[in-house]
Design goal:
By secondary structure, the chain is an alpha/beta fold. It has helices spanning 2-30, 57-63, 82-95, 99-121, 132-135, 139-145, 159-167, 205-208, 213-234, 252-263, 281-284, 294-308; strands at residues 45-50, 69-72, 125-128, 150-156, 238-243, 311-312, 319-320. The chain crosses the membrane at residues 12-31.
């Protein structure tokens, strides 16, 4: 009798254990955040790349990464592609001057979303290599409200090749400053226009209308530099400045090591990925065409500089010229 009772108790415990396991599995599926690996948010580190695109940012997302880092090129939320988020939210909010809403979005959604990715994976270092957040006016709010260390890599590329690369991304009607009824808003390039309130290189309409398409993309490149100089003067954060072309030089491995040491994130130093340009024109099948000789491009550049002038950082008397 006692043995039968003992068997019944053991069987009940076994069933109870199985049921508990099932409950845990189901609950962890329905409520995954509760079951994330415990990670102290004070140990988080957030790193970004500052550019206007076409400067190796996707390449970085393929090369850098280790067991303690979450690396992404475009990931602002789980339920909406970046292209739709830009067209439906970032761009209209920015153009309407809805800065309070943008700041609340960063505080209540973007930063918690990034932190949730770290908690879900049990990692502490977040490396966002895309240019979207900083292009569309979120840099100030990210630097103000992220409570842990922020690191930024400023990637530069020679101005004329970069302007040409941006220009060759697609037809003129897809340029963000062109009003074309036959082009979907989701096809507009992820860049600022001279009327956006966060630009730091003013370009009056009369001047803008005199610029050819190549010169307008030079303005995109130079406004990016002006906005970078503004951030350096306004906020305190660790940064590393580098030239994209240096990665392809004979000492290129040293540049990768410099980036890795700065971020505290490993990279595939023995991989062919280092010599493979992700998102290149060849991969995208966008022909990089020099429609005009280099001498003509440089002449247009000089003409553009005379028309645009230098950018001025708010209340500072010092103007930022072209030697940076």
């Amino acid at each position: 009798m006692f043995r039968e009772c003992e068997k019944t108790i053991c069987w009940s415990r076994s069933v109870g254990t199985c049921l508990l396991a099932v409950v845990v599995v189901v609950a962890s599926t329905l409520y995954p955040k509760v079951f994330h690996k415990r990670v102290n948010s004070s140990s988080f580190q957030f790193s970004f790349v500052f550019s206007c695109g076409r400067a190796g940012t996707k390449h970085f997302s393929k090369v850098f990464g280790d067991n303690n880092s979450f690396v992404t090129h475009q990931l602002e939320c789980n339920d909406k592609p970046t292209r739709e988020l830009i067209a439906d939210f970032y761009r209209p909010m920015l153009q309407n001057g809805s800065f309070i809403q943008l700041e609340q979005y960063v505080i209540n959604q973007l930063i918690p979303f990034m932190e949730s990715n770290l908690r879900a994976t049990g990692k502490t270092k977040y490396f966002y290599t895309g240019h979207v957040p900083f292009t569309f006016g979120l840099a100030d709010y990210l630097l103000r409200h992220i409570k842990t260390p922020v690191k930024i890599i400023r990637v530069r590329r020679s101005r004329i090749p970069l302007a040409l690369s941006l220009l060759n991304m697609g037809p003129e009607e897809e340029d963000p400053w062109v009003n074309a009824n036959n082009v979907s808003k989701y096809k507009k390039r992820w860049l600022l226009t001279p009327t956006d309130p966060v630009v730091k290189l003013p370009c009056p309409p009369l001047v803008w209308n005199r610029l050819n398409r190549f010169q307008k993309y030079l303005w995109v490149v130079d406004d990016t530099e002006c906005r970078w100089q503004y951030l350096k003067r306004r906020y305190h954060f660790d940064y590393l400045e580098l030239q994209l072309e240096a990665l392809d030089q004979i000492h290129g491995m040293l540049e990768y090591e410099k980036i890795s040491n700065f971020l505290g994130i490993g990279f595939e130093n023995k991989s062919r990925k280092l010599f493979y340009r992700h998102n290149s024109k060849e991969i995208l099948k966008h022909p990089l065409t020099l429609c005009f000789p280099e001498s003509q491009l440089r002449a247009w550049d000089e003409e553009y500089k005379r028309m645009i002038g230098s950018c001025q950082i708010h209340s500072e008397e010092k103007k930022i010229g072209w030697n940076l």
